[in-house]
Amino acid sequence: MTDIALNPAAPASARPARRDIGLKRRYAAERRFKLYGITAIAIGLFFLVALMYSVFSNGYTAFWQTEVNLAINLDPKIIDPDNKRATDPNVLLTANYPILARNALAEKLGVPATNKPAMRELGKLFSEGVRGQLRDLVVANPSLIGTTQSVWVLTGADIDSAFKGQIDLTVDQTRRKVSDQQVEWMNKLKGERAMSQRFNTGLFTYGASSRPETSGLGVALIGSLYMMLIVLCLSLPIGVAASIYLEEYAKKNRLTDIIEVNINNLAAVPSIVFGLLGLAVFINFFHMPRSASLVGGMVLTLMTLPTIIIATRAALRAVPPSIRAAALGVGASKTQMVFHHVLPLAAPGILTGTIIGLAHALGETAPLLLIGMVAFVANSPVTPLDPSTALPVQIYMWANEAERAFVERTSGAIIVLLIFLAVMNITAIILRRRFERRW
Amino acid sequence: MNLMTERNLEKAVNDKMSAQGNAIKMQGKDVTVHYGDKQALFGVSLDVPEKMVTALIGPSGCGKSTFLRSLNRMNDTIEGCKVGGLLTLDDEDIYNPKIDVVELRARVGMVFQKPNPFPKSIFENVAYGPRIHGLAKNRQQLDEIVEKSLRRASLFEEVKDRLHEAGTGLSGGQQQRLCIARAIAVSPEVILMDEPCSALDPIATAKVEELIDELRENYTIVIVTHSMQQAARVSQRTAMFHLGNLVEVGDTEMMFTSPTEKRTQDYITGRFG
Q1: Which residue from B20, B66, B91, B129 could staple onto B186, CB 3.0 to 4.6 Å apart?
Q2: In a 10 Å sphere around its CB, with 0-12 CB exposed, 13-18 middle and 19+ buried, how is residue B140 labelled?
Q3: Where is the ABC transporter domain (chain B) (predicted)?
Q4: Which residue range is the domain that position B8 belongs to?
Q5: In angstroms, rounded to a whole number, what is the distance separating the alpha carbons of residues A21 and A246?
């Protein structure tokens, strides 16, 4: 003030220049850092999109399967030529059902039964799986014999691929798996709407099969379900009990330090090591059955436990000390404090950890290979002691097959697995949002 | 050190006279507390007379909260904390292994510095103590206890229409009174308060202080406070701590008008602290 009064003529620009406090540099650094972040996310997103695109573009066709509608005459002369079905039930099981389907198809396409080469071609149009399909139909209801039934029959895998446009039909027919004759029939049936793509329920019900069209995830789904139940039932109580003891009751000394370090180490042990452990202990020592989802579940439990223990301990530690003090202050015992106050408040965290652990276990393959869950299992397991496979193992097995139809099934199975994982992770997020409490 | 201890003991004996004739409810004799290698209390001897408010004052880190927390063994929860000397409740050693710490805490309740209601309803907050101690035989009795406790904490009128809403939704002062209601719901004999007003605004503080004054009729209260004025307003006896030692204890009026110790005078007049 005094300056201005003394020097009224001084121009405004004579004020001292503003200090350079590096604002420009700071903003540049900020922009640079934002750019790094955006680049990192973009790279991640690119790979995610690439992965999703390749899986979905290959896999979505697996959910549809080409089928052909046939009016099949369940001729007793072919099913039961000696008329013994009343006394010998095996007759119905061993009858030559594919002949029935072939005859129905021949009739539909106007191929004379005397044209042997054409009939052979014709027989490849539909899947060998028709044997089981018709057998199940007849065994379930023997009175159908002698009638004509309209049945949707699976086409062969190659016809299915051709129908979906996955086979290049411009190359010479000697160099592809479908003949020109078959393509002609296929188009004819398509024109008559007798051949079309229908939702592939078999993908979720069939077990292992050497024919792509009759192989599915049924066994793998049951196996994975059993394993998840076993993992949940074993690892949640064991993990939570261990965490509560370590966090709330155990004295902090060298022993608990060693235990803590070991648990953290276990979480980082490669899963295949757990598979070897399961093989050595559960199968070789305790003589539990091979390929059983019980053993698989137990191995995955070992693998999931450290994850759950670490998540649970973090959740318990996050409960504010003031709540503990309040509980103890009104005279709650330590156990009452833990079970009435700490555990309910930690529950969302524990649940999230458990679900993430389960999702991890659901996608685990390596340890299951070692305990023999990589097996050709055609029949659905009834108990967890029966041989079965698991979703990721089924993907691994299908990925080793060469046929075009298995390629799409591999991607289809990946989609199914991804959906399960997404559902589990979303559930974890919803649970956390829902039950998270502020204090 | 020995000298100091002896002097404290002597003082404790003298204090019995000045305790306005009230019986001694809790007594500390030569109490030492170690946190690991660090000693926090150096032989404190202090009597807590029945149905009176005893204020513990002193600068930060002087051990007043430590002493308070050893009165209901809340120090047990701190790793590496060791309590020596003798602490009694009705002439019973509370650190005797035969004493059940849960029962002790039911008799010696506590209110903390920051209001810490459970993240449950107001009703559940108050009902929790009676429930775990089996004080109510049926729902009706429980309702009565809750209402009585809330009334004693002068909170009932404010919350009677929303007993089943979250206790954490109350204002800071209401939360602290809820915590006091929670403490008195188990009918304790002694209530320990660890700076109960330090997180509250002046109006809420005034309400809690008023409440403490009312509670004195039925309960023995020990309060730690940083505020000289608060000690002067609510307490009948004041104990001055410094660096883990008891400097002086006496009737509040005496302490604030004619303290015998220079350190007390310096602290009260704001020369250090």
Answers
A1: B129
A2: exposed
A3: 26-268
A4: 2-117+188-268
A5: 51
pLDDT of residue B16: 46
d(CA A143, CA A59): 40
Of B77, B112, B129, the CB nearest to A322: B112
Per-residue pLDDT of A261-318, as tens digits, reads 999 999 999 999 999 999 999 999 999 998 999 999 999 999 999 999 999 999 999 9
**Would you say residue B16 lies in a domain?**
yes
CATH architecture of the domain with residue range A218-435: Orthogonal Bundle (1.10)
Residue B259 belongs to a domain with what CATH number? Answer: 3.40.50.300
Q: Do A326 and B102 touch (CB under 8 A)?
A: no
**Structure confidence by residue, pLDDT tens digits, A351-383:** 989 999 999 999 999 999 999 888 888 888 999
**Helix residue ranges per DSSP H, A245-389:** 254-266, 271-278, 293-317, 321-329, 334-336, 343-362, 366-370
Average pLDDT over residues B1-11: 49
Can you give the pTM of this predicted structure? 0.81
Average pLDDT score over chain A? 89
**Which chain A positions have a beta carbon within 8 Å of B185's beta carbon?**
330
Per-residue tokens: B212? 């403490």
pLDDT at B273: 52
A317 touches chain B (CB under 8 A): no
End-to-end CA distance of chain B: 23
Nearest to A333 among B102, B128, B183 (CB): B102
Record: contact A332-B102, CB cut-off 8 A:
yes
Q: Where are the domains of chain A?
A: 62-200, 218-435
- Which one of B75, B132, B133 makes the best mutation probe of the A interface by having the most chain A beta carbons within 10 Å? B132
Side-chain half-sphere exposure of A17, counting CA atoms within 13 A: 3
The CA radius of gyration of chain B, in Å to the nearest whole number, is 18
Residue B21 lies in a domain: yes
Q: Which helix (H) or strand (E) holds A286?
A: none
Q: What's the confidence (pLDDT) of residue B19?
A: 47
* CB–CB contact A326 B106 (8 Å): no
Does residue B86 form part of some domain?
A: yes
The number of distinct structural domains making up chain B is 1
Sign of CA dihedral B155, B161, B165, B171: negative
Query: B133 lies in a domain?
Result: no
3-class secondary structure, A18: coil
Beta carbons of A189 and A95 less than 8 angstroms apart: no
Cβ proximity of B109 and A325 under 8 Å: no
A335 interfacial to chain B (CB closer than 8 Å): no
Q: What share of chain A is helix, strand, coil (3-state, %, to 5)?
A: 65, 5, 30
* pLDDT of amino acid A52: 94
Two tokens, residue B263:
């350190």
Q: If you ran DSSP here, which 8-state letter would residue A128 be given? A: T
**Would the CB atoms of B186 and A330 count as touching at under 8 Å?**
yes
Residue A8 has a pLDDT of 52
Residue A435: the pLDDT is 78
* Ramachandran region, residue A212 (left: φ > 0; alpha: ψ -120 to 50; beta: rest): alpha
Q: Which two tokens stand for residue A295?
A: 């053993």
Cross-chain residue pair B116–A331, CB shorter than 8 Å = no
φ, ψ for residue A160 (rounded to 5)?
A: -60, -45
| pLDDT, position B13 | 47
Contact criterion met (CB < 8 Å) for B119 and A340: no
